[in-house]
Amino acid sequence: MRKRKPSFFNEKTLLNRLLKNYALILVSLILVGMFSIGMNTYWQSMGRGKVTAQEAVDTISRSINDKNLQGKTMLNELKENQEKINSLNRYMDTPISDYLTYSYDQQLETGNYLFLPGQVKNFYTMYDNIESIIIVLNNYNDYYLSTAQDKSGKKINGTPRLNNKFYLAYPITNPVTLEVLGSFYVEFSQKDILDSLTHLTTFDGLSAYVFSSTGNPLLTYTEKNNTLDQQLIQQKMKETSVLPLQKLMENNILEHIQTASEFEILVTISKEKILTHVLFELRILMLGGLVLILILLYLLYRTFTKYSQQVDIIMGAMALVSEGDLNTRINEQETQFELKELSKGINTMLDNIEQYISDIYKLEIKQQDAHMRALQSQISPHFLYNTLEYIRMYALSEGSEELADVVYAFSTLLRNNTDQAKTTTLEKELSFCEKYVYLYQMRYPDRIAYHFEIDEALKDLVLPKFSVQPLIENYFVHGIDFSRNDNAISVKARLVDGQVKVLIRDNGKGISLQKLALIKSKLKSEQIELHDSIGLQNVNERLRAYFGPSFLMTITPNETKGIAIMLSFNDPLS
């Protein structure tokens, strides 16, 4: 037999066009994938930056709160009673030798040894993050300074310099008169905060600033040389004591809080650094994507060449079969992968047709048997009614009237659901709805209240069955909040000027204005397509078909919570 030219080399063959289309699709998918991965990487990086900024704020806030608590504890140790206040004044007022004599005399007199340098020195033992302590009393020109190098401290004339240090300040008040006597300053080490911030991010663009309630900078940390932001912050704080948050948000991810102690914490992460980080990753991605495209195009060419040769073998065999040579078989050794499976399938297809028909017939018989068994296993509704009535009577005999009422309500609902009647009276419809709500009330005691009213003239009004119940069911499915104990729904049916008005109101979750506007526009249409409001659609269509053009359904939000649904139509009895 003459050897054919592989179909791959025929420009008009479907296989050649498929190869081109497939290559185009693959290249497009790779490019789209690269773009998607790049965008996803960017947004993930921005999200990580937001989380990192929040973690940095939380870290600083927790550290400041801890230090603030330590400072208050130390201050309380120094001023908790009048004796300690007197000791502070005596230290500032007398030479150290006279003060030492005073401390010994007080110890002999009261049993308490109050020596300010000793107390302060103990603070360094209690807390290892203290750099210095300053005590300033209003009535003295000197102030007390203690440092980590000189823990006992000394009096220094003049005003303390607190610039560019992490000082927390506290007023010294007399515990008896509440008079402000001076100020207590504690300089804490910044090392724990700086160490925590160093390990938070990989973007190399995090900056943190802490300001006191008076606008003094307590902490400045930056991982980048961002002098413009620092200068802007320093200038605005100096001029207005207000951080330029809007300006900073243009180029940074920003987190800002003001603590309960009136410290302002600002953390920024440069968007430029994040973008640089993402672009670096994208460069690697683009290079890898280009290499992948070239490899795929080469493999497609090689694969489709072999594929087309195997397709020609199969097509030649199928041509012989179509000419009537049913004994022809494909040489499975010359095909691979799915074409080999296809060859096997073609070779065995004729032999297996009868077996397939037999299997399908047996399957249908089994399905019919299963359906018949399902029909045979159904329980007669009357058996259910009789069983429920027996349970109700037994509950009554045992004195469980509440359980009997629940069984009776459920039995009534079941009987109403299985009844094939197309219509009912308004009184029966509302009675059915009331039992429906009652069962919910039993399930969630003390959480649901309901109220039903109907005019005497409307009790015998005939309307389609299940006209009101879907509206009430909507409330329990979408509107009720079972975590509350003040859920309420009411139904009032009244005859006003020859029109029947049925009002269903609830105090549930309500409905958004956008969705409410969509529902109203659809209710006015002759062809309603409320995909998300099946109950409303069903009731509106059935009642409009039954009562004619006079029927109108309106939905409005209540003044407080929930919605109100009004069904109005002409009284057919008038």
From TrEMBL:
Transmembrane spans: 21-43, 282-301
A GO-annotated cellular component: membrane
Cited SMART domains: HAMP (SM00304)
Entry keywords, A to Z: ATP-binding, Membrane, Nucleotide-binding, Phosphoprotein, Transferase, Transmembrane, Transmembrane helix
Listed InterPro entries: HAMP_dom, HATPase_C_sf, HptR, Sig_transdc_His_kin_internal
Gene3D superfamilies, A to Z: 6.10.340.10, Histidine kinase-like ATPase, C-terminal domain
Compartment(s) where it occurs, according to its Swiss-Prot or TrEMBL record: Membrane
GO molecular function, one term: phosphorelay sensor kinase activity
CDD domains: HAMP
SUPFAM superfamilies given in the database record: ATPase domain of HSP90 chaperone/DNA topoisomerase II/histidine kinase, HAMP domain-like
Domain HAMP: from-to ranges: 305-358
Record flagged with keyword Cell membrane: no
PANTHER family per record: HISTIDINE KINASE-RELATED (PTHR42713), TWO-COMPONENT SENSOR KINASE YESM (PTHR42713:SF2)
Name listed for the protein in its UniProt record: ATP-binding protein
Organism of this sequence: Enterococcus ureilyticus
